[in-house]
Amino acid sequence: MISFELSEPDVELYEAARRMLLTAYHSENHRVAVAMRGGSGAIYFGLHIGSKRLNVCAESSALANARMAQEPSIHSVVAVSMDGRGEPQVTNPCGLCRELLRSYGAETSVLVDAEGKVGKVSIKDLLPLPWMRATETEWDTLPPRVGEHAT
After folding, report:
1. Helix, strand, or coil here: 55?
2. CA–CA distance from 7 to each of 38, 90, 120 (Å)?
3. Could you give the CA distance from residue 90 to residue 80 in angstroms, rounded to a whole number?
4. pTM for the whole thing?
5. Does residue 46 surpass a pLDDT of 60?
6. pLDDT at 139 > cutoff 60
7. In this structure, what is the dihedral angle of CA atoms 124, 59, 93, 127, given to the nearest 10 degrees?
């Protein structure tokens, strides 16, 4: 469920990502910046890196920075990209980043663009059914059958 009641730390995280993007923005090589708050309260940054044939999302570099610093958990994340006027705005994580973030903390909150209004949502709500190997589940999945419904 999305919440539009943001806290001072949420706004601080956005401002940190905004400053990073304004400092490093390049229309092809660095289009997105991320600020990520660890459970310790420390903020880690990530920057989209790209070329004509390859792009790496900013969320992955922020997460790598947090893990290299021995951060045990990720509390919150915000990504920003430039709008048409050259101003940073909150942007939603792509599907790959949603999966990446979910695998490093199901309790992480993400600031999102909810059709022009910034809200906060749990990564579990952004990716309710994550990809898992069959050996990673706590259940056995029965094969699909016509006419049978799960109860």
Report:
1. strand
2. 16, 15, 10
3. 4
4. 0.86
5. yes
6. yes
7. -20
Q: What is the mean pLDDT of the chain?
A: 91
User: For residue 150, what pLDDT band results from cuts at 50, 70 and 90?
Assistant: low
Sign, Cα dihedral of 21, 23, 24, 28: positive
**Any idea what DSSP says for residue 86?**
S
SS3 3: strand
Amino acid making up residue 135: T
DSSP β-bridge partners for residue 46: 34
Give the integer Cα–Cα distance in Å for 110 and 119: 8
Provide mean pLDDT across the span 126-149.
79
Beta carbons of 14 and 113 less than 8 angstroms apart: no
State the Cα–Cα distance between residues 107 and 34, nearest whole angstrom. 18
The structure tokens listed for 78 are 């915000």
SS3 state at 30: strand
Contact 6, 13 (CB under 8 A): no
Task: Give me the pLDDT at residue 149, please.
Answer: 64
Measured between alpha carbons, how far is 41 from 52 in angstroms, rounded to an integer? 36
